[in-house]
Amino acid sequence: MSQDGQPGDPWQHVTGSVIAATFPMPAGVVFNWHVHDDHQLAWAASGVLTVRTESADWVLPPTRALWIPAGLKHETLAAAAATMRSLYIRPGRSPASWADPVPIAVPPMLAELIGYLDSDTLDAGQRARAEALLGDLLRPVPMTTIEVRMPDDERAAEIAARLLADPADERTLADWGAQVSASARTLARAFLADTGMTFGQWRRLVRLQAALPPLASGQAVGTVARHVGYQTASAFAAAFRKETGLTPAAYFQTQRKVKAAPASSSAST
Predict the structure, then answer these.
(1) How far is CA 118 from the centre of its chain?
(2) pTM of the predicted protein model
(3) In this structure, how many other beta carbons lie within 10 angstroms of the beta carbon of residue 111?
(4) Which residues pair with 41 in a beta bridge?
(5) Residues 75-130 pLDDT 10s
(6) Which of 15-19, 148-152, 240-244 has the lowest mean pLDDT?
(7) 210 neighbors 167 (Cβ within 8 angstroms)
(8) Cα(214)–Cα(217) distance, integer angstroms
(9) Structural domains present in the chain
(10) DSSP E strands, 54-185
(11) Cα 192 to Cα 189: distance, rounded to the nearest angstrom
């Protein structure tokens, strides 16, 4: 296996259309930016994964997987120890044809199927039947991402980097201005011009984004709220719901599903 989450020489001994691979991911490991020739279904069998694309970050507990279309540049990381199991699917024989990343609900049956496909004891018939079932189990689930755009201004970018490292930092723009030799007004204009939002709005998104991995790992809402800079769980929940339309407790539930682009009925492209 390669170190960027791709199976080495993947199709050399495979006659089917799906390869399964397992990657233990110690805390802090990052599979740096890369692309696949095949579609990928990335799933955290244990722990929490973050898949980052150039336009979004997807935080995945074991109840979620992410469909990553072939050719899409991405990186995968784990803040704490996790195990990633991935399916790699030949585009020409894929049961789905989504052109963009799609979050997928992972009920027990899909989790078992991913593990089953990772077995090297399957004969051709068993593998074909399992691959046929896969298309029926790829059920999209709604998942609002929280995106944080970095400012271009050097002084504002320095502040942004420090807040990404410590979202709970309470310093005002006036306080920060003394650190970076700029007035609060200058910094406010820089954040608005470069990110399209006020400093307060930008910091709220940073805090909410930082909250996603610990929420996904099952930490209590109150604990997470305090960790990212909120005095009360209710204030955090209100900000979270305003941004995502969901409460923190509901965000990672699998019951809320939407109908997305249908899976391709043809295996050809």
Answers:
(1) 22
(2) 0.77
(3) 17
(4) 67, 87
(5) 999 988 999 999 999 998 888 889 999 999 999 999 999 999 988 888 889 999 99
(6) 15-19
(7) yes
(8) 5
(9) 18-137 (2.60.120.280), 154-251 (1.10.10.60)
(10) 57-60, 64-68, 74-77, 82-89, 102-105
(11) 5
